[in-house]
Amino acid sequence: MKKAIINEKIGGFTLLEVLVAMAIIATALVSLLSLQSRSIKMMESAEILEGARMLAEKVMSEGELKGVPGGEVKGEAGNYRWLLTEIRLTPEKMPEGVPLLPGRQLSLDIFWKDGKREEKISFAEYLYEH
Prior knowledge:
A four-stranded antiparallel sheet has the order 1-2-3-4, covered by helices on one side. A hairpin with a 2-residue loop joins strand 1 and strand 2. Helices cover about 40% and strands about 30% of the residues. The longest helix is centred in the first third of the chain and has 52 residues. It is rod-shaped. By secondary structure, the protein is α+β, with helices and mostly antiparallel strands. The chain has one domain.
């Protein structure tokens, strides 16, 4: 008795279909890893800026309360360097349109290293005396 050979297609994927699916998955994974890397860099940048903001709040508060002897004070805190300057307000030093009131201007520059380059953020505050 002879067996009949039946050419039935067995369910499954061809090699080409598997390769195309793997290429799509690989592309998606590379994109996700790139996004993750960018997200980590943005988070580090946000942490640095938040540290600078907190330092600025502290230094400016001390400058408000104690004043700035000699008109300029430098300091360091962690990875940051800072320069606080105080200027007595005179008509020549006032921005246009701002009325002259007795007081002073505090300016704060905070510096830090980001790789090989130095970054800077500046703050200014006008304090009027009553």
